[in-house]
Please model this.
Amino acid sequence: MTSTLIRGGRIITAVDDYHADILIENEKIVSIGLNLQPGANCQVIEASGMLLFPGGVDCHTHMENTFGPSVTADNFKSGTRSAAYGGTTTIIDFALQNHGTSPLQAIERAQSKADNVASIDYGFHVIITEVDKQVLEDMRYAIRHEGVSSFKMFMAYPGTVMSDDAAIFQAMRMVGQHGGMVALHAENGTIVELLIQEALAQGHTSPRHHALTRPALLEGEATHRGIKLAELAEAPVYFVHLSAKEALKHVVEARDLGIPVFAETCPHYLFFDESSYADSDESDSFDGARFVMSPPLRSKEAQNALWTALKTDDLQLISTDHCPYCMKEGHLGKINQKPLGANDFSKIPNGVPGVETRMTVVYDGGVRSGRISLNRFVELMSTAPAKLFGLFPQKGTIAVGSDADIVIFDPNEKHTISAATQHSDVDFTLFEGHQVQGKVKKVLLRGELLVSDDQWVGKTGQGRFIPRGEVGKW
Ligand SMILES: NC(=O)NCCC(=O)O
Ligand SMILES: [Zn+2]
Ligand SMILES: [Zn+2]
Model:
């Protein structure tokens, strides 16, 4: 029997804050208490002065994503290792339903990419691109028998992954009856497309036009429509990467009425705003491409509103939407990356990295700056995503019986974030040069050390697919 004792740390959960030892046996936490004694052959980890968090749960990542014009820079090997260094021990990634195929085939394909390669645990949402009777039946089957109970649908990207309202409504109605949930990418795709074509026709090709052609109002409109479709379908709904005040307003309104509407935001919307695009209209500046994600960065005012909403539970969690493309073509052999859109902003692959920095930047910029409490931090990073997406209490907390996914975190260590010292295959981080306080020191997945003082001590492939139960019930 393998056993580990973590001694003397300060345990933080979504509701508790206390000093105790944690005893781990066979992947699980078996005891929490004072002065626990190690048995024979027990590994002892000293953690005095350290905070102990449940392993991070990032419910929005895109490893080896193929639905855009190119493949993301991280696959499940590099991406999950990078996540682990950042304190995340579970991700929920995506399985893409290609046109003419079943969601069940999508799950199988996604599993074949992750199995034996991922270093942390994982699940999938299926991206639904086509709905018919058989697809709806397969979605029901996925919820009941495959442990895949959430589905992403796009109100944007016409001609590729966008679904119309009827498809979204039918999917919501089906999954709502079976304990599942649809997650929506809410932007009015047809109007965005029109604005893009008008901008290009006027010769506007630089990255900042990405933001100008995706106005906040169109995120607000789609969010409102998505809520109405969910209400009609009598189903819960989840909004991914919420960025705009105009969208938040509708979420708040619905939640105040007791409608099961949930939403996440992402670190990039909390730490950057639209001014990051400002320089990129100069003739040869392509630098703003690093901030090309959808929805785009919003105003400073929106950023403040998001922070407030995180505090008041109008937003339930922070995920990363880790979807990295390199700024330089050919980095580690990656092709068709951000420079694809060097002469046309609409061809820049959408997405940014973030899986490794999520906990650190939110701890520093959220907890240390006084915007959120330490308990709320744990809730946003771990407990809420686990509860909302059917992983709790196996994941998302430090409790007897839970998986021993634990982050040992030094609240005092200062460091500077840089792509050069990160572990993703992408060649930049939005947080380059940011000085932060608080550092992930050790990370355990089901009791096994993955990361120890900046050293990788984990094993490729030790991550496991985690079947999920009912979602959207929290
Ligand atoms: N967000 C983004 O720009 N890229 C990733 C795909 C998505 O989540 O829409
Ligand atoms: Zn999206
Ligand atoms: Zn995404």
Notes: Residues 55-375 form a domain with the TIM Barrel fold (CATH 3.20.20.140).
